[in-house]
Design a protein that fits this description.
This protein is α+β, with helices and mostly antiparallel strands and 275 residues long. The chain is built from five helices and twelve strands. The N terminus is likely disordered.
Length: 275
């Protein structure tokens, strides 16, 4: 279940800038090669009056140049970072287990996306729980490391909403999954179930969760592999996800983590021929 642990008051967010040398338009992403995966450097985030900044001075800083952020498809090599971020942001009864991360990053890594910060050992991110698992950056500097600061974790399911079965995973997945298995990732499904939207609490109010989610939605819209994106949310985050384009379908029957969820879906716009 997604959780964006930023300020839960009024969410009025102004323009965010992530690269001072950028000359690109707001919202543009610059591609680069990184460890065989698709990577993008984030330059600007467009203004959205429905999201808020934090009350403290650090979180109220709209300039992200100190983080040097970029988004990249997650892989099994990011396992420890994903676990550390999950543990730092979710209560224990709602966390994804280490083995469940292994399963998801092995079965469908293309459905998970990370927001990374390029930093050095004396940088702002060096004290964060994910920094010990950071890996060398793709820059020429040997001192810089890419540290996970936000993530979206997803799988496919055959139902229009997230269910307890789609939240689970086959216990024997390492030895092969039966074609009739209904738990976990369903390759033939046309719904993407988002299981985690997490961002480091230390950067609340700076829009990192929104950035990685918007990047994720943009990728899935153009992928042609899904008709909708579904997630579970608690009532205090309904407005947040509605601001990102999700629609509230009402209370969910999913009981994961004690229940109390709402079903939310994001319909993928129909692609016109030649688009």
């Amino acid at each position: 279940m997604p959780r964006e642990l930023f300020d839960r008051g009024n969410r009025d967010e102004a323009t965010l800038t992530a690269s001072p040398e950028s000359q690109t338009r707001a919202g543009d992403l610059i591609t680069s090669d990184y460890d065989g995966c698709n990577a993008f450097t984030i330059h600007h985030e467009d203004e959205n009056p429905n999201f808020g900044t934090s009350r403290n001075a650090r979180a109220g800083n709209k300039d992200l140049s100190d983080l040097h952020p970029f988004v990249q498809t997650l892989s099994l090599s990011d396992l420890e970072s994903c676990v550390a971020l999950e543990d730092a942001t979710f209560p224990e009864h709602e966390r994804c287990s280490r083995e469940k991360f292994q399963y998801r990053l092995t079965s469908c890594p293309e459905l998970s996306l990370g927001l990374f910060s390029t930093t050095t050992s004396d940088g702002l991110v060096a004290s964060m729980p994910t920094y010990p698992h950071a890996r060398p950056s793709d820059t020429a500097s040997l001192e810089k490391r890419s540290t996970l600061v936000a993530q979206v974790i997803g799988t496919k399911c055959a139902t229009p909403t997230v269910t307890d079965e789609s939240m689970a995973f086959p216990p024997d997945w390492r030895s092969g999954v039966s074609p009739s298995e209904r738990r976990g990732h369903q390759e033939h499904g046309r719904t993407i179930a988002i299981h985690s939207l997490a961002a480091l609490l230390e950067f609340k109010g700076r829009g990192l969760g929104k950035i990685v989610m918007k990047s994720y939605l943009q990728r899935m819209e153009t992928s042609g592999i899904t008709d909708r994106i579904a997630l579970l949310a608690h009532d205090h985050l309904l407005k947040y996800y509605e601001g990102l384009g999700f629609r509230n379908l009402g209370k969910s029957q999913a009981s994961f983590g004690g229940g109390g969820w709402y079903d939310m879906i994001y319909e993928i716009p129909e692609q016109k021929p030649g688009s």
